[in-house]
Design a protein that fits this description.
two-stranded antiparallel sheet, single chain, elongated, mainly alpha, 138 residues
């Protein structure tokens, strides 16, 4: 079977080029182009953001209640209306905050390892297929 002249004149793809085009390694590598890398890296970034969120103290709570609006008989109108404003702040005792931060750090570390594993797996897959293609061309 004859191959077209244009196909014969193309430069061969090197392993370094293949790795660079898939976003694994190299100066021109763009990992944002490969969904196998983008997903795990985004999860790792989100997990790091959750560490920062875990460090924060709980927000104060504010509530406002109105009772006995438009009552009946002697209590009709707004004269008997009761207003209640309350402010609350949850206090975390017993190391809950530090435990929450440690758990978030562990999750972030796990997500980072998963992102690294995705990089390594993609690099292995590219190398494996490159070797298979070179072997098939020989």
């Amino acid at each position: 079977m004859a191959t077209p002249v244009a196909a014969q004149e193309q430069e061969l793809l090197t392993l370094e080029d293949a790795l660079s085009r898939t976003g694994v390694v190299g100066e021109t590598a763009d990992p944002e182009l490969n969904p196998r890398i983008v997903g795990p890296r985004a999860e790792a970034e989100a997990a790091q953001a959750l560490v920062g969120q875990a460090r924060l103290r709980p927000n104060p709570e504010l509530s406002f209640e109105v009772e006995n609006i438009a009552g009946s008989c002697a209590f009709s109108g707004l004269s008997a209306t009761e207003y209640t404003l309350s402010v609350g702040q949850r206090l975390e005792l017993g190391g809950k905050r530090s435990a929450r931060v440690q758990a978030a750090r562990a999750q972030a570390q796990l997500a980072g390892l998963r992102a690294d594993l995705a990089d390594v797996e993609l690099g292995f897959l590219v190398r494996e297929r490159y070797v298979a293609a070179v072997a098939a061309a020989s």
